[in-house]
Structure formats: structure tokens, C-alpha cells
Amino acid sequence: MIKNSLNKMDKQNKYWLIVFFSALIMGTEAVLVKLSYAGNMSMNMLVLFRSVVGFICFSSAAIITKKHIFPEKKNVFRVLRAAFFNTLNTVFLFTAYSYLPAGLAILFFYVSPSFTIIFARLIYKEAIKLSRVLAITVAATGLILLFWTSAADISIIGVFYAILGAACSALYNVFVGDLLDEVPVETYASTQYLFATFFYIVIFAPMGKLAFDFTAGGAFWAVCVGIFATFIPIYMLITGMRYIGPVKASITYMLEAPTSVILAYFVFGDTLTPVQLLGAACILMGVAIPQIFDMVEAKKHIRPTQLNL
């Protein structure tokens, strides 16, 4: 029993690290999106590129790992439900990027963990732990400090889209977390991005919103969004979420914000003020809090003498 408890704790820490590094990689998204926009890539074409690349990558992974590309009939509705909210999340967040500086869009988007806690409680009656509330409070404080200097650039429309994206992201996290015991990552993600591809074509094509006047550079960065800000981090996220749950994964994903700020500094020359550095430190602390609480809780059930057996 003791050995099993330790093994479970080690396994959860391992998968938390997978989500941790997934968040760092996902931190490239804001920069890659901005680089793509600089190549005359429209938001509509970018999300379409992203979904096509995502489908190709995940369906290839499904074939290589000998998984089904499409889910069993009994799981189709649940898979499409999660895919729908993920698709809306992408549209709203990428639209927010066009109205707000990347960092500010991420700031408002990261009310998502708070939505996740609320939806997980309402839909699945998941308990709200003190460590989660404390982590979100500390990390939210960090986010405010991190982007405080951007307050004058606020666009109400951009904020509205970012918060809508956050709510859809939270619903996605809750619903996909309910699927992972039954549907392989490769199967779910393949269906998700195929759904997104058709969704964008059906919505944008009749409106004449799919413009092909982007540059080669814009296309290159759009493909990078599909690989480095979609396939790799989402594969890691969904794999890790299976073991640590949607709430803890959402809190950990707050690391995306300071990562974006650091990359923006190196790519665009954006400077970091002392206040912003303090904000990044708060976010890191917020990510660490649930881990510390969980480790302490696990050790409470193991006597020191037993650890030496």
C-alpha cells in the first residue's frame, strides 16, 4: 500500500512535468501568431492552417501508434462536444490577438483556470481545494503585475473575445478530461482538428474570409503554429491531463504567459520591467503551490519509519 502510494505520487509528478513543459512550449503561440500576421496571414486562414496541420500530425501519430483516427460511435458526441469548445476557444483567442497586444490578450485569457474550477464543480461536482484557490489567486496577481504597463492599450472588444476564449477553453478542459480514460489522445485530437477544419471552411468560405494573399513567410509561421503551438504541446497536455486532472492542468498552464513575455523580449525586443519580473515570479509560485500541497498531503499518509522499509 505504501509502495503504491509512492508510485502514484511519482507518476502524478511525472505527468505534471509533461504538462509543465507543454505550457512552456505553448508559450511560443503568441509570438508565432504575431509573426504569421506580419506575413499577411489573416486570422481565418491561420486557424485553418493550424487545424489542417494539427489533423495531419495527430492522424499520423494515430497510424504510427496503431490507434483509431476516429472514436467509437458511443463516444462521438462527447468528442465533438469537446472539439466544438476548443474550436471556439481558438477563434476567440486568435481574434483577441488582433485587437490586443499578445501579452494583454493572454492576461485576460488566463481567467480560464477560474472558469475551469467553476465548471468542474457545476458539471462533475468536483471538490474545490484550498490549494487550487490559493494558486489561482497568487497566479492571477502575478498576471496583473506582469502586464500592468499595458493597461492603456485595452480594447473592450479584445477583452470580450479573450474572456469568451477563456470560458470555452475551460469547458474544453472539463469535457476532454472526462474523455481521456476511454479515448486515446491520438484519436481525440485527430477528430478534433478534422472537425475544426470543416468548421472553419463552412463558416469562413461563404463569407469570403479565406484570403490566400499571404506571403511565404506567413505560411511558414502558420505551419509552425500548427506544429509547435498545437501538435507538440497539446499532445503533451492531453497525455498529462489524464493523470493530473483538468483543474491542475489549467493552473499549470499559467506558465504560458511569462514564457510568452520572455520570448517577446528576445524576438521583438519588448523589455521587462521590475514589476513584470515580480509578476512572472508570482505565476511560477502559483504553479508550484498545488504541487507542494499535494506532496505534503501524500506524505501525511506515510509514517517516517515506513519510508525506511
Keywords:
mainly alpha, 309 residues, single chain, disordered C terminus, 14 helices
- Approximately how much beta-strand content do the residues carry? under 5%
Q: Main β-sheet, in a few words?
A: none
First-last Cα distance: 12 Å
How do the helices and strands follow one another from N- to C-terminus?
A: HHHHHHHHHHHHHH
The quaternary structure here is single chain
Classify the helix fraction into a percent range.
over 70%
Number of domains: 1
| Count of beta strands | 0
C-alpha Rg, in Å? 20 Å
User: Structural class of the helices, strands and pairings?
Assistant: mainly alpha
The coarse silhouette is globular
pLDDT < 50 stretches: 303-309
**Mean pLDDT across residues:** 83
Total helical elements? 14
List the helices and strands and how they pair.
Blueprint: H1 2-26, H2 29-38, H3 43-64, H4 76-99, H5 102-109, H6 112-124, H7 130-146, H8 156-177, H9 185-204, H10 216-244, H11 246-252, H12 256-268, H13 274-300, H14 304-307
Helix pairs in contact: 1-10, 2-10, 3-9, 3-10, 4-5, 4-8, 4-9, 5-8, 5-12, 6-8, 6-11, 7-13, 10-11
How is this structure best summarized?
The protein is an all-alpha fold.
Task: Walk me through the structure.
The protein has one domain (2-307). Helix 3 packs antiparallel against helix 9. Residues 303-309 have low confidence and may be disordered. With 309 residues, the protein is mostly helical. It has 14 helices and no strands.
